[in-house]
Write the structure tokens for this entry.
Amino acid sequence: MSNVLKISLRNLSRQKKRSFLLGGAIAFGVLIITLLNSFTAGITDNVKENFSGIFGGHIFVSGSVVTSSGKVVTVIRNDALVEKALEPVKGYIRSVHKRSKVMAELIFASRTFIQRIDGVDWNEEGFLDSIPIVSGKLSGTVGDLKATLKGKGGRQAIILPVSTAERLGIQVGESLLARFSTVTGQRNVGEFVLVATVRDQETFGISNGFANIEYLNELLGLSDGEYQSLNIYLKNMEDIDFVAASIYRKLKSEALVEPRLNMDEPAAGKDGEPSPSRRRAMASLMGGSFFGNSVPEPWKGTKYSVVTLNDLLSSVKDMVKVLNTVGFVIFMILLGITMVGITNSFRMTIRERTREIGTMRAIGMQRRGVRNILLMEAFFIALTGALIGLLLAGVAMLILGSIPFGSSFLWIFLHKGKITFSLVPLDVAINLAVLLLLSMLAAWGPARKASRLEPAEALRTEF
């Protein structure tokens, strides 16, 4: 076997130009597929992380109760059951935060605009670290803004998307009114002071404002200790589905729970409208009821809902699948072209080495040895090309990942204003295995033909 390896490596060095061209083609294919796979994986992680900053978590537990008048109210009044459901997965959880939500009519001067407002705890949540601040109070730094929010000025502070502020014509430091319904259906008005604007993502249908949860709960008519949603951050986003399933099972064993989102259900119907389960998931996350104005069957106590970031980003996941599929198709096309090149190259090699092969057979080399020499040549060409492709991909990732994009509208795909690449070892291993297998299959026919040459006939051959 050692002689086979030595002869294979020697033959590659004898045909440097041919080996370089074949290896270069393979390296280019590996470069493209590795960059694309790492890019889409990085985008997925960034989108999840940025959306978790906007929505305030990875998993969202909300509750609804039916009042004596038959109205559905979104509220969690006793979170002992929820806390009990979190106990089995406590080791997976990074932090837990309470939030309330409302769709408010913002009023400034003669202008109005409907905006979703999330009530957050300024002292506990770190969402400002993941949302790009466009303008802020004082010097405009995140540090000064945090100090403002945690001080006396934080009670009536409000942070709005920059597009909303522009529509209203309001500047940082000015006051505005917010008009909305309480949880029991009464109209209420609160006064807020704009302390900052943030980059939003209206392209994705997401536009959030943020206010003090204590002040917002008072305006909503919620009592002390009540809130609308428990937002859970995990240590690892890969555990989202597992942890959500555990929480769902625990809640379901002791209370009413809304069915989880059916991931097999089409995202939209024939009319283009979201499917029923997706409407319920979005209603739960937005702070609305699961059923709108109608209650099919009133219930007693609290009915819970468990929604995850993965449920909400199914369209992004579909986009990533499409990109990965396109990348794999391109990779296979490049491999197909390269495989044809390998086959033709080895046919020429056999033609040029016919007498050499005859000599090796005449001095005792078995047919299997001749075949293995050519297969090992194909293997080493593919392996070397793949390693060079991976190295080039790593260099390209470092260069592209160092380019700052600032707080552009693409920030939802970026991490701190930069592209990130996430190299998935399993994808690399699969691509490498496919490449090596196809390369050796491409050389199999010529190698088998070479091994069947008769020594005497091969030695008499002249070109």
